[in-house]
Design goal:
The protein is built from 3 helices and 9 strands. The protein is of the alpha+beta class. The longest helix is centred in the N-terminal third of the chain and has 14 residues. It has one domain: Pnp Oxidase, Chain A (Roll). The chain starts with 10 loop residues before the first helix and ends in a 6-residue tail after the last strand.
């Protein structure tokens, strides 16, 4: 087993690095739940608009069905050492109702525009209310960097 010694980052560093990852990474895990069918988790491409995560999935998907019944979701960037977890409420937008800037940004990032497909797609927007970020055990303390939709007070580095 490989162990990496980690010097804990300041809150400001965690926020800055989390925002950089949200702006540049491609994949995110989205977990939803349905009161009758239970949990559902899928990896999806995402874009970050500075305030919210946007994903796009088939209109008939379990993800869309679940969000329409229970909008509370969890999202996670796919790294088990450099962890970023987001909690928030998701909202579905049809191809006709999605804000053009969100759909255009998504299409530009991935070179694929779901609005041009024959199959119906839904854009799902999640503005995080809580964000946790940590690298290994030394950073477990202070891992909440956003609470109630407000980034933590940035302490001096």
């Amino acid at each position: 087993m490989h162990h990496t010694r980690t010097v804990p980052r300041s809150v400001a560093e965690r926020i800055r690095e989390t925002l950089e990852r949200l702006a540049t990474e491609r994949d995110i895990w989205l977990a939803t739940a349905h009161p009758e069918h239970g949990p559902h988790q899928v990896p999806l491409w995402f874009s970050w608009d500075g305030q919210a995560v946007w994903v796009c999935t088939g209109a008939a998907s379990a993800t869309v069905r679940n969000v329409r019944v229970e909008p509370r979701v969890r999202l996670a960037l796919p790294d088990s050492f450099d962890v970023v977890l987001l909690l928030g409420e998701a909202r579905c937008f049809s191809e006709q109702d999605v804000p053009a800037d969100a759909a255009d940004t998504f299409a530009e990032k991935f070179g694929w525009d779901p609005r041009t497909e024959d199959k119906a797609f839904v854009y799902v927007r999640t503005a995080p209310t809580t964000v946790r970020a940590w690298r290994g055990e030394p950073e477990l303390s202070g891992r909440v960097i956003m609470r109630d939709g407000v980034w933590a007070a940035q302490s001096p580095s």
